[in-house]
Amino acid sequence: MRFPAGFPITLLGLAAQAPLSPTTPDPVQSVMATQRDFKFKDDSSIFSPLDLVELSRPGAGQPNDAGDLALVSVSKYSLKDKKDYKSIFIVPIESAVQPLEVPLASGGEAFWLDNRTVGHAVDEGEGKDKVKALYARSFQFETDSAIALSVPDTPKLVGKFPTSTAGNFRLSAEAGVLVFADYVHADGDLTKAKENDEAWENRGDSAFVYDETFERHWDTWVGPKRSSLFSVPLARSTDGTWTLGSKFTNLLKDTGLKCPVEPFGGTDDFDVSSTHVVFTAKDPKLPAAMHTKQDIYVVDVHGQSKPRELTSGKQGATHSPVFSKQGDKAAWTELDKDGAEADRAKIVIYDLKKDVRYTLTQHWDRSADSLAFSQDGELLYFTAGDIARIKVFVLPVPPTPAESTTDPDLPSEYRTPVALTSSGAVSGAQPLSGGRVLFTRSSLTSPNDLFVLRGLQHLDVRAPAAFSPEVQQLTRFSADALEGKSLASGEDFWFEGAEGKKVHGWLLKPPGFKEGEKKKWPVVLLIHGGPQGAWEDQWSTRWNPNIFANQGYFTIAINPTGSTSFGQELTDAITKDWGGKPFVDLRKGWDYILENYPEIDPERAVAAGASYGGYAINWIQGHPEFGFGFKALVCHDGVFSAAYNGYSTDELFFFNHEWGGLPWEPEVKATIAKFDPMNYVANWSTPQLVIHGSKDYRLPETDGIGAFHALQERNVPSRLVIFPDENHWVLNHRNSLKWNYEVFRWFDKFVGSDN
Ligand SMILES: *[C@@H]1O[C@H](CO)[C@@H](O)[C@H](O)[C@H]1NC(C)=O
Ligand SMILES: *[C@@H]1O[C@H](CO)[C@@H](O)[C@H](O)[C@H]1NC(C)=O
């Protein structure tokens, strides 16, 4: 450090070293010199960051086998208690009985053991003695009794796992085994994991040594352990007592396969039938950081056989493998090309009886997400992003072709998925008996709630227009907390973007906004990350557009070139063009808004973005000719040096795909030189807040620090906020509050109403 501690760095007069350009603000105006208190707008009708942090966070609903109860895990943070309260809700699907809340004092993971019993896995013991214990909790549920839904028994211990890291449970009741994920050392032996942990801890130094990537991934340095799938006997005796066996079989032993696939894999990465487990794993022959190829395998649920590959070997990534309930078919989603991660995800079905594999949605211009067979195996339900919503779709399962093919000749009813929902964002469709589907959905105005679709037995896929599904909402987890809050449901707008394409955006008006009024409103442009992502009709606990609207900003969230859910052409068009078409789109969308909403004050415009959105902020900094006229910017975990990212990021395949090759290749270098924010620092002049998480290994913190140093050396008002314990996302509740505080304080300083 060149300066004595405590010396006001911003006043040091870097002016002596760097000549002030006419656009460079007076350093005395810098943030350090004008710091003052800031308070959120927070009256009873405002949905403020304080409300966001304390609002219930429900997960996705899991139905029981009978389809009359669903299980939902919910967490709820209390600012006063500084505690995250965890509970499960048991939700009746077919009666008006109120959901039952069961608090889980020590948290843990819950799943159905049978129609009236929930398995609850929770940590027990301290330090080295900590293990996961499994309990059974039974419920009584009588629709015609006054008690209705209750917990008659105290939880009963079912058994213990050798480690505390066992998780992602899936029961095969027919096989009498529980399949789960855990981490093991090279010997693959779960019962030795703790012993091996201790040896590793006591190795005498703290070094990590690598001969291949990943050395670190997302937010974790890769240690000596690998994820794997295990099975253990779990059965119910005639008196109803559940017992966990003590033989833990590593289903992937000596294969080099890892499942779940880190960092985000979970129960979506595998499924169980009465005899087998189907799972996805990265191709063990390929260096993980440079490839996205994942293969699908089946393995005997008792680990009696080696895994057998079901994929062709010519595919890219695969996700969401599932079995039909009959166990005769598996399905998954598949990308064509290795190296890509935002390519079109197509549905593939594998007939396990005939050993024939065929692609179902070869000609559908959307990407299927999570899959589920109907109970009779005749339909396939799945979710997919579609025009800034995530909907439930259905397709009938066609007769298996004579041989494996990626493009079977299918009649039209097998080609065009039918949308069963139209709004919000669905996070998993669970078929129930009797033509019903349970699903979980959030929107711009609400976190998750459970819904049930009925009457699907009457759906004729050849005439889907004749069918209108009956949808019933089963829970209202947030209704009380959101009562009286001015949440905007979001209005779609469309405009002509780059190359004449139709581009979509959302606008959210601030509470109190009146058309044609004299009052002028400040405006914020939010730029999403990915870049292959989208602003959707979905709730977010991190970047929530309604938080911006409720702090008094006319809020614009555009889905420019690169965005998903509008067809693959728009998604793909950002490749090698990071600083090109998306900014034509953003600028045209901005014009559209300013032309159509004279209530907006263009002199009080600000913008914010994270990840690719942070790249966009740094790119806008360097390009005053775009003419947005922003008075303040916020860059969270954004790209400063695209050139260096080619080497410093964890998932190298992403860079190689986006920039069209390896970072030292002449053509790639030329593209980067053209679109690297760092190359345009000479133009930076807009006040900017830089936020970065130190455990962000996707875009290491030096990108945030580099941008901050650039701003400081140019005497541009700037501030750096570092979260030492956060990754690419700010997840801790109090850090989230601090994040919102710093963002709105920054905007308020430059465009606040009292300025
Ligand atoms: C759950 O209920 C369904 C429908 O009543 C029944 O068919 C099934 O056998 C039950 N499952 C168990 C494990 O008891
Ligand atoms: C600065 O911005 C101008 C347009 O205002 C642009 O033409 C130029 O390339 C930029 N130069 C640098 C070095 O950032």
Walk me through what this model shows.
Residues 1-35 have low confidence and may be disordered. With 755 residues, the chain is an alpha+beta fold. A hairpin with a 6-residue loop joins strand 7 and strand 8 (131-138). Helices cover 15% and strands 32% of the residues. The protein contains twelve helices and 42 strands. 47% of the residues are buried. Among the domains are: 310-477, 6 Propeller (Neuraminidase), CATH 2.120.10; 483-751, Alpha/Beta hydrolase fold, catalytic domain (Rossmann fold, 3-Layer(aba) Sandwich), CATH 3.40.50. The longest helix has 19 residues, at 733-751. The chain binds 2-acetamido-2-deoxy-beta-D-glucopyranose (2 copies). One 2-acetamido-2-deoxy-beta-D-glucopyranose binds at residues 622, 624-625, 680, 682-683. Keywords: Hydrolase, Protease, Signal. Belongs to the peptidase S9C family. One of its GO terms (molecular function) is serine-type endopeptidase activity. This is Dipeptidyl-peptidase V. Residues 539-752 form the Peptidase S9 prolyl oligopeptidase catalytic domain.
Name its key features.
single chain, 755 residues, alpha+beta, Neuraminidase, Rossmann fold, 8-stranded mixed beta sheet, 42 strands, globular, disordered N terminus, binds 2-acetamido-2-deoxy-beta-D-glucopyranose, Dipeptidyl-peptidase V, 6-blade_b-propeller_TolB-like, serine-type endopeptidase activity, Peptidase_S9_cat, AB_hydrolase_fold
